[in-house]
Records
---
Amino acid sequence: MKAIITVVGKDKSGIVAGVSGKIAELGLNIDDISQTVLDEYFTMMAVVSSDEKQDFTYLRNEFEAFGQTLNVKINIQSAAIFEAMYNI
């Protein structure tokens, strides 16, 4: 399983640490990561994977709830969606 995680919110310390900790807690591996601050806003994109089958509804709910604790918006989408878009 491969997925794309995006994080957007007002910049503050601890966002990368918190999100990467949650990724590890959910049994996902970070394959690639990029983050930047645009004006006062933090943005991050990570490619994550797992050898095990993952329930995307569960992951989506977990990241949504966790994002609220950091006051950021966290999204997770299957990488297969992006691969299908470019293989038409």
Note: The radius of gyration is 13 Å.
---
Amino acid sequence: MLYFFKRYQKYLLILFCAIIIFVGVYVYNKSNTITTSNDEKLTVTEEEKETNNDDDSTSETVFVDIKGAVNAPGVYELDTKKRIIDAINTAGGLTDNANTININLSKKIEDEMFIIIYTKEEIENYMKKQDVSEIVCASYECVCPDSNNDGCYKNDANKTSSNTSSSNDEVKVTGKVSINTASKEELMTLSGIGEAKAGAIIEYREKNGNFASIEDIKNVSGIGDAIFEKIKDNITI
């Protein structure tokens, strides 16, 4: 055995070195493969992040001007998916005396939209001036002190019904009560017209047909010249 080792010592050393080199190369290549795989995963992750950031950067925004009874009125940049209620919240929310009865809170915002939130006093005073009540607003025939207020229900109705000529659309545009089609509740919004007189108006037109002119309302029992003078500017046929 000793003789064999001495005789082939040179070859054994070469074989041993070859084995060491082979093992070293194998370990190195395996380690490099793992590192490369991790680098590729990291690169993919970074690319995904960049893609997500690009998607976020392409999100469209618009500018909205909101005034009135909000805590921080001003011009705000908002995502196009937002609605008027989101614009209000961005502007600090409603003040304690705000009234949104005539504001379409669910309406999607648009670029250069102008929104006014009115106070309770402003709505009350305007309703008195126009001789309408919240009963009318329940049908979206709401008063809107400013024709350029993009948030109002009434302005939405005027824009979408500009090509129609029904009596209901006429009421929305003029703010007047049609004595031929109005319900008892709508008639009661007129000055001097209570439940009894409103019922008498409806009973009269059911028996005699539609009024030919607003002056014909004086034919109804209990409605004379004095009451007619109060309501003539607020009624239509």
Note: The longest strand covers residues 61-68.
---
Amino acid sequence: MCPERQLFCQKGCGASLRESQLDTHEALDCAHRPVVCPLRCAINCAASTLQRHLQTDCPRRLVSCPNRCGARVPAVELPTHLRNCDHRMVRCGAGSSLCARPLKAWITPQTSLDRCFAHHEHGFMWALKTSDVDTILTFLHRIHKSALDEEFTTGFTPLALACSKGDIPLVRILLLHGADVNLETSRGRTPLGEACLGRHSSTPTATDLQPSASRVKWLMTGSWRCWTNAINSNWYDYSNNTQRRLFVAIATSNYADIETIIAGGEMAYRENHAWHLGRELAASLAALDDIQTQLTDHMNAMNVSIADSEAKQMKVVKILDSVEYNKAQLEHVQKKEAKVEAFRQVTELTVKRA
């Protein structure tokens, strides 16, 4: 076979060249030759599509952060970057979109938390409310430890708020970063108290943590605000035996008995905020049923009235049509009479002349 004969590229690029040049063409010049992505995404593509792959398809291509933080990260890592980007928008603790600002703007140069002017809340509270773990971790890595126990205007600390929600992973994160489990707010809120009031028996502050000396001391000495809350919550309505068991369990740090007493009997319902909300919801539903019944009666009466009005309207329309018809007939008769009268006069005149 002649080495100088003309052949077409076997990879289908359409090039025609001598057989002696075919191997070199397919290895170096052919637009359809397979090439390895230089960004090491482990994808082989044709040389002709390499640029498009690098610009739009490659998972390792560099893309700019949409939050305009200036970072350029591989496309496959962008979701991870967005979860930790300090330029992501975070609302204030009141949830107002008007107070939203980049995450880093909620942190002062002194690594404390800055509050919005309108609601006097900060973005860390909103992250706790929404259980946005990524945002919470970003805050925790940037703020000073003292800001972790800072009280919100609602009377909650971050840990007390997490316990009231029963968010176990969030509680553990806050504890691992040094949140004070014994801290009592100005309104008498404590993490353990919020967990008990919310019937969150599995909250780590009540079961998963080993008793510390400070917590045992706190439980044994007690807090006058806790006792005041207990009295105001009508605990005196319960039997002396139940009260005695509960107070002994608190004083001895017997978490199992605390959970058993709080989770059972009338106490669990009357001391649970959800029970009161349930009663209010039931009353609202009953009132709604009454309103719906009254509305149905009024609608039926209105429909009957509308139907009666429509019937009367149709009757009036028919009467008007009849009047118009009779009026037209009367005009027709009058025209006939005029013609007859004119014919009579002409006839009389003709007879007289004859």
Note: The radius of gyration is 43 Å.
---
Amino acid sequence: MNLIKRILLSSFVLTLVGTSVGANAKAYKTVLVHGFQSQQLTAMDPRKIDSDGEAYWAEYWGGLADERIDWPSYERVEGKIASDYLWPKLRTMSEQGVCQPGCIFLTHSTGDLITRYIIDNQANWLENAGLEPLNIVATFDVAGAGGGSELADLAVNVANGLANPVVEAAVRAWLGRSVGQTLGVLNDLKVNNARQIASFPGDRTPRLRFVADGDLYFNATKLFLPGIDDSVVAAHSACGANQVAAFDSCSVHVGMDGKLTSQDDGVRHFLPYHYPMLMSDNYDHYSVILNQAKGKVTTANTSINVAPNKSVAFSTYEEEKGFWLWKKKYRYVRQSDNTSMSALLFAAIPE
């Protein structure tokens, strides 16, 4: 083996070891819960649920997590998703003691809604089966759709023949295909429906929110999403607001771009135990779970305790821009200009 090959092999091994050590150094196990997958509405193959789930997280989180909860988008949350996918996985995790040290569920998009349903039901399900409930310490909800998406309402309208060509084009841009007869979890993602599913779980698990305001689909969907949005989910859902409205920030003190100024249309009231953490106008609905730095990130909250002596925290700094009367102050997360939001999240998991 020549010198160059040895160097490359050594670098590769060190990368794998570094990733493994970093993941193993965390105090809690990481469990991934993916979001809506539109291709499953037209390719309803139960044999592909695992491989689809693996592919969903392959770019970054798949190599760092301890467990994954996969589910099919062509089913309903309170139907076969719960009975055929969530319950068997939760039972196995309990039997294997996966969450005995504590678990952090990292969710994306509809995974937020799925996880809320899990939090509301898992203890009852497992105790009735004579098993130990999972110790879910906190959730990291990235671009969370727990409050539904107006795009799901539009998609259902299109399927029922109740939409004009502009709406049809927006839905097609989002789904990547025309709406068919199978709607599955889209019915649960309608805004009013989503907010009725496990609305107020008795468990006090902190739901940490990570929110984006980027552009996709040549802005075809933004017309239909109130307030700021990531092109799929509006701020009322992603921030964890307790009502549907056109919000411009998850905070009344800082904008999505980090500007430290009063936000008249910022979220003031949140669902119980929902805490917005990171915000950025540089990421869209999908880039938030990739290991690709898109630009600076700010904080709505810089830290929160998730357990005794364990906190999720982000180091920040302030920067002034402009001149004289036009000078403005901004708050950013350190190193966020060259570190992906996903990497910032992983680094913040307590050790």
Note: The chain has ten helices and eleven strands.
